[in-house]
Amino acid sequence: MQHVSSAREGATLAEVQDALGEVAAKGRVTVSGVRAPDGVFVVEVKAVNPRACPLSIAVDGPGEGEFSITLGHAETWFEIWGDWPETLQDLRRHVEAAAAGKFEEWTRGRMSLGVFHFDSGDVEYRQNLLVRPRLLRRWVHRQYEAY
Question: What digits encode the pLDDT tens for the residues 85-102?
Fold first, then answer.
């Protein structure tokens, strides 16, 4: 059920739906907008393929272009913010990469490290971690497939 109550929420949902248009049309994902118990609007992306990356986008900042993105089975999360048009483009880029299977994560306990593999280069998101690459061998690694 779509619970859109602002132009920003509607635009975010529409951008994600548009970014996933082809895979959604083929029935490989569902995209929905829901209202979380705390009142935050969340766009949820659920893939049919269990080896694809779960994804949710919370439209939760006080400014127009602020999102919290949670993805993967370990729920690696990060925030993006800035001017509305640029932030929406950045959100789309992350959604398209997740849909293409260009995200992987390493986890150990409650710590996680996520990496997007963009054509322009890799981008890491880590939750207050300083990790030496050789130590990642001890972490659980997940490489996600395309939607």
Answer: 889 999 999 999 999 999
- Is 2 inside a domain boundary? no
Q: What is the mean pLDDT of residues 129-147?
A: 80
- 1 within domain boundaries: no
Contact 142, 72 (CB under 8 A): yes
Q: How far apart are CA 140 and CA 26, in angstroms?
A: 31
d(CA 2, CA 33): 5
User: Burial, 98: exposed, middle or buried (Cβ in 10 Å; 0-12, 13-18, 19+)?
Assistant: buried
What is the total count of domains within the chain? 1
Strands 76-82 and 65-71 come out as: antiparallel
Residue 100 belongs to domain spanning: 7-143
